UniProtKB/TrEMBL annotation:
This is Glycerophosphodiester phosphodiesterase. InterPro entries: GP_PDE_dom (IPR030395), PLC-like_Pdiesterase_TIM-brl (IPR017946). Residues 5-246 form the GP-PDE domain. One of its GO terms (biological process) is lipid metabolic process. It comes from Janthinobacterium svalbardensis.
Length: 246
């Protein structure tokens, strides 16, 4: 059973706001999205921050790598102006700030653990620990918790060790032929795949085995309906303006 929302705003607000910023979350909410996917990696001081690329330059003004800077330094960097002048002044938010916002607004989170090269274990463990600490009350009350996911097997294993009580999703491009064995070993609740690599047969097999099935990144209502008809449980989208949240 998939206890989570079906439609998630990718990187906060899809392509309608600067990705992985608090402005993106506000934008998602304005479109009625109360479920979101975003990416987390570690700053140089070990603090988890919300950003997609390990290198600066594309969305964050600056040079070098995310893990060359502390969370406070990243928070002061420009992460909104590339998208439009009205977003100037948005910094790289800490994971902590994003969780606080989402909790206050009752936004459900799929937290993608996105380690910079070589720091998979530390990133997986830190994200899981912070999440568990933030949701300690919900954990004991049996309420809906965030879902962690990652392409990094090492990060997933570290997250499992640090907070085994948090559900995890295994992110892949195409679902590999050994998915059943691997999913069991990793003890994941769901498989997250590129929708363009999914077939109805594979969707049926994954669902028949009892796993959640999540797709990224689905940008037309027609494709969304098709995937849901195949048994896909949920997906993230860049087009929060085209796809109504459910
Ligand atoms: O979590 C699904 C999706 O976000 C994976 O790709 O590169 O957008 O993080 P990416
Ligand atoms: Mg992502």
């Amino acid at each position: 059973m998939w206890p989570y929302p079906r439609t998630l705003a990718h990187r906060g607000g899809g392509t309608l706001a600067p990705e992985n910023t608090l402005a993106a979350l506000r934008c998602g909410l304005a479109y009625g999205y109360r479920a979101v996917e975003f990416d987390v990696m570690l700053a140089s001081d070990g603090v988890p921050v919300v950003v997609h690329d390990p290198e600066l330059g594309r969305t964050v003004a600056g040079s070098g790598h995310v893990n060359d800077y502390t969370a406070a330094q990243l928070g002061a960097m420009e992460a909104g102006a590339w998208f439009g002048p009205e977003f100037a002044g948005e910094g790289v938010p800490t994971f902590d700030a994003v969780v606080a916002y989402c909790k206050a607004q009752r936004i459900w989170m799929n937290v993608e653990i996105k380690p910079a090269p070589g720091v998979d274990v530390a990133t997986g463990a830190a994200v899981a620990r912070v999440t568990r600490d933030y949701f300690a009350k919900e954990l004991t009350a049996g309420e809906l918790l965030p879902l962690l996911s990652s392409f990094s097997i090492a990060a997933l294993e570290a997250a499992r060790q640090a907070a085994p009580e948090l559900a995890r999703g295994w992110l892949v491009e195409a679902i590999p032929s050994d998915w059943a064995q691997k999913s069991k070993e990793l003890d994941v609740a769901a498989i997250h795949c590129d929708h363009q690599q999914l077939t109805p047969e594979l969707a049926r097999e994954v669902k028949a085995a009892g796993y959640g099935l999540f797709c990224y990144t689905v940008n037309t209502p027609e494709r969304a309906s098709e995937l849901l008809a195949w048994g896909v449980d949920g997906f993230c989208t860049d087009r929060i303006d085209l796809i109504k949240p459910v």
